[in-house]
């Protein structure tokens, strides 16, 4: 069976996911496209999915009888309405992060899915599919003993002037927030944020870098440096200190050179290159599960917890240095 997929939002990531579904992965085909920017949908049809029908609205695409599953890759503020419509139609739905822009919105999705009684939603937290993180998790689960501390960094070469301090949480740290819950199989109980002096390349409305400290229910302390104007490259670091040893996220593969009297490895500069393979694996996982009428991977619950944690981290930015409690509601049985 070929899964017939509709894509809502054909901007940067929607176009790239359409490309991988039609040209890289197996078992699925793009049959429908929708974007408020019609020219963008038409360009994806022309370049990638010539047989796709273009719909005026995301809701019309979801309702189409030949659409089996939906990809929501539009602007974040529109995700909730489309995911809720997909659940109401009983169609599996892959939603790019964020699941919703508020915790209340993400909760509405959790409630609708629970009411439906079966998983339909996968959230686009692709780091869980990165081969480096998968190997790190295996080491954490089986080799280094119970985790005690995580040291991590999320560094980006530069961000535009519109990128303001809370975006370091909602747009950047959000991936660490999800992946560390998964890596440690633990939940957060508090967040704290410390600001060193801002780097010279930072902007007027951005305090950069910052250090976010998360504490988990089992007492593991995670410190993450978020430095989005670090200049030198796109660099994701993670080291887990356990009872018996230490495990480190592998560096991305890079040619080592002996050149000009130096031993050198290039560092990536673009997040798309760092996680390109994991996007393929996450969408193939979606296709397999959606073909069976369900969803796999990161859940609506994970999207909801990420939203609650992000909100707590933004409050912690405002209360610099103070611990902000993270109180999670009871997890519905659907997500156990
Ligand atoms: P983008 O290039 O701006 O594309 C978003 C597209 O959605 C644009 O064409 C936009 O049209 C369209 N759109 C806006 N409102 C819409 C609506 N109501 N219905 C249908 N389409 C609508 O953004 P992007 O970089 O692709 O990001 C899209 C989403 O993916 C964001 O939530 C982002 O956080 C997420 N993302 C995740 C990752 C990851 O690593 N997992 C990476 C990149 C992006 P206009 O241009 O006319 O507004």
TrEMBL record:
- Record's keyword annotation contains NAD: yes
Please report the stretch or stretches of sequence annotated as the Gfo/Idh/MocA-like oxidoreductase N-terminal domain. 3-125
The reaction(s) annotated as catalysed by this protein in its Swiss-Prot or TrEMBL entry are: myo-inositol + NAD(+) = scyllo-inosose + NADH + H(+)
Origin: domain of life: Bacteria
**Keyword annotations:** NAD, Oxidoreductase
- UniProt-listed Pfam families: GFO_IDH_MocA, GFO_IDH_MocA_C
Q: Residues in domain Gfo/Idh/MocA-like oxidoreductase C-terminal?
A: 138-320
Provide the top EC class.
oxidoreductase
Quote the EC number.
1.1.1.18
Give the family, as the similarity comment puts it: Belongs to the Gfo/Idh/MocA family.
Q: What's the stated role of this polypeptide?
A: Involved in the oxidation of myo-inositol (MI) to 2-keto-myo-inositol (2KMI or 2-inosose).
Q: How does it assemble?
A: Homotetramer.
The protein's name: Inositol 2-dehydrogenase
